[in-house]
Amino acid sequence: MSLQIPHRDKANGASAATKAVILVGWWPLKRNSIQAIVPGSAKVAGHPIIWHCLTAIAKVPHIQEVCMIGYYDESVFRDFIKDASTEFPQIKIVYLREYQALGTAGGLYHFRDAILKGKPERFFVLNADVCCSFPLNDMLKLFEDKDAEAVILGTRVSEDAASNFGCIVSDAHTRRVLHYVEKPESHISNLINCGVYLFSTECIFPSIRSAIKKRTDRPRLVSYPSSENLESSYFQDDDEETKNEVLRLEQDILSDLADSKQFFVYETKDFWRQIKTAGSAVPANALYLQKAMQTGSKELAKPSANILPPVFIHPTAHVDPTAKLGPNVSIGPRVTVGAGVRIKEAIVLEDVEIKHDACILYAIIGWNSRVGAWARVEGTPTPVNSHTTSIVKNGVKVQSITILGKECGVGDEVRVQNCVCLPFKELKRIPYFTPAQEPPSGTASDPQPDGKPIPKLFQPLKIRGLTLQNRIMLSPLCQYSAQDGHLTPWHMAHLGGIISRGPGLTMIEATAILPEGRITPQDSGIWSDKHVEGEYGLRRIVEFAHSQNQKIAIQIAHAGRKASTVAPWLGMDVLATEEVGGWPSNVRGPSAVPYNEEHATPKELSLDDIEELKKAWGAAVKRAVKAGFDVIEIHNAHGYLLHSFLSPVSNKRTDRYGGSFENRVRLTLEIVEVSRKEMPESMPLFLRLSASDWLEYSGKESWTVEESAKLASLLSEKGVDLLDVSSGGNSPGQKIKGGPGYQAGFAKTIKKAVGDKLLVSAVGTITSGKQAQAIISGEGEQSMGSEELDLIAAGRMFQKNPGLVWDWAEDLGIQINVANQIRWGFGGRPGAPKK
């Protein structure tokens, strides 16, 4: 089948058929955003970003259809399209869903039949992550005057900022594009790409086609649709080798278009801003509000002594007359603003309550959030011409805009500054004194006093909306000291001593989703809301971690066929009977195959049981989110339930959960989906995986590192951010080859297979800072291979030495910040220990 391009009648003028395409994006590529471009999410100047795109498109004559292309589920746009169709009745709006990332050019080509329907001669392409005045009619006039094949919208920025964007070199007289370079390494022009285009249909599709052909002799990134309702072939007339190319207009197409001599730039002198992060919505809001004020928009609130324009207040919002708002403030539907409140340079979303005398500056307040009396939620202003929303504070890059996620609660007199708070967080006044730990303990001094570079082990790690101050994690350590699933003072002492000394992430022990999912009767649990609250509830340890400016994670687990045993100091592999609180008759697994003769024989989970298990898992994750944890990890290792489904050693099923690799990994992938559904987009999801059963020597079928690498790729597509690589635990016949860092080789094999698609950590007999640095950097005699990793986990070493982070820093000869209460005693007093 050949590509059918309509003949372009150059005499048609402005009446020629025109369409518009809005690229609304793929969420994994925008994982740090607050979904500002999605209808119903963050709004600027009272409307979602896409609404501003449609408003501009509606002003162009003869546009009758707009195609929105993106990865989001169709249901996300259903209500928005309905409302937009009422507001813009002259325009038909359709949504075209990608099931894999195809790139900006790849998406256009994939949906070319829909775009070409009605035989348009040209079409606009608008990236939804930009805000500007969208001078589309001016671009159209230039297109017609120059008999162009393509027109790009450009704007001028500073030389320092230009290299962060695509740069355009043009003829100042004719406005023809001479060269286009995406993010050049050296300065070539301060005229940059605004992400808005007008293409001739007879030019752009053959250009994309040509780019595909050029790739046949060089490495490509290929993706395949995961749904049968996509077209069966990306290129219907081509072989498998050219299916589903990831192609980008900026990197792959625009440079070649410049050679056509019919590529022109329209330079806007008006405002422009890219919205790549949630914080970018605040300056975008200011730009749109200022434009609305210039044009005399009636949507804006009338200026007064307490309304400093421009300000948008939704008609359903209630603002106390004594509150002072502006400039550049948007107040959403059903918001309540109390007496004496001050709001400046901020977006307040739906159903927020702000109590009296609170102060909101340079911030976004998420849906259904509450801000207490005299509280302060504030960011830091950045230069007007800046294109970043981050600043460096105490040597650490932080958000300049403070963001509260959905349903956050800020207590009375609490101050929140320069941070992103994940949804459902409760930020209260701590009922005890603690000095501010800023920067947090475990942060490397930057620059180092001696000027030496900071080793990778102590470099920050950003994962979605979370930044760890170093790359050392407390591995989950079962304490077997809980009572009916509730934590006890032991846990507070054990975890508190480690948290205060600054690992980048502290992970609490395997926490069971069901009573029968515990390893022992003394395991911690999260099957009840009561486990979250209370004197020693999960929320208490979370609040302590956050009071110390530290990050905390929870490992969610089900013990499967290894459940109902006693604490290991009472005996290894000893069954816990009913007399000691066990449940040997209610142990569950993939098949009726016991771990060994000492363990109970599990009951095989039925399909209905599996559905109930998934519901319980989702409920547990939801509780963990509400408790305020920063990260959730799925326990998929050490012979427990999910691992036992992976391995043919323990999984003898013949239904859709057993047999083939695809069937054995099915439950793991479904649990990931269930977990991700209950988690905010900005919250990282980890998964601990046993890379091998250590049974290769036997010649029998078992779980191997090759299958782990294969699964890792699937996990990255489902929303897992980091793979916590361990090994073994599924068979008493395992033959583990121990030694220093003995599991790091597995982690490196998997990292090599997945590359940048997934973060990977190593754990196991990592005992010194130099060894940890060698493993994570892939350099040195102890590196266990040249592949770099992303995080190092340690368990027993923290059990022995809660100050492990400080010891590892000294081992590497670097200076780190330490909690005030600990640090002061080492400030040069006589007799202070020296190393």
Automatic annotation (TrEMBL):
SUPFAM superfamilies: FMN-linked oxidoreductases, Nucleotide-diphospho-sugar transferases, Trimeric LpxA-like enzymes. Its cofactor is FMN. InterPro entries: Aldolase_TIM (IPR013785), GMPPB_C (IPR056729), Hexapep_transf_CS (IPR018357), NTP_transferase_dom (IPR005835), Nucleotide-diphossugar_trans (IPR029044), OxRdtase_FMN_N (IPR001155), Trimer_LpxA-like_sf (IPR011004), YqjM-like (IPR044152). It comes from the Eukaryota. Residues 308-429 form the Mannose-1-phosphate guanyltransferase C-terminal domain. Residues 456-805 form the NADH:flavin oxidoreductase/NADH oxidase N-terminal domain. Pfam families: GMPPB_C (PF25087), NTP_transferase (PF00483), Oxidored_FMN (PF00724). Residues 434-453 are annotated as: Disordered. It comes from Hyaloscypha bicolor E. Keywords: Flavoprotein, FMN, NADP, Oxidoreductase, Transferase. CDD domains: M1P_guanylylT_A_like_N, OYE_YqiM_FMN. This is Mannose-1-phosphate guanyltransferase. Residues 27-209 form the Nucleotidyl transferase domain. The keyword NADP applies. The keyword Coiled coil does not apply. One of its GO terms (molecular function) is FMN binding.
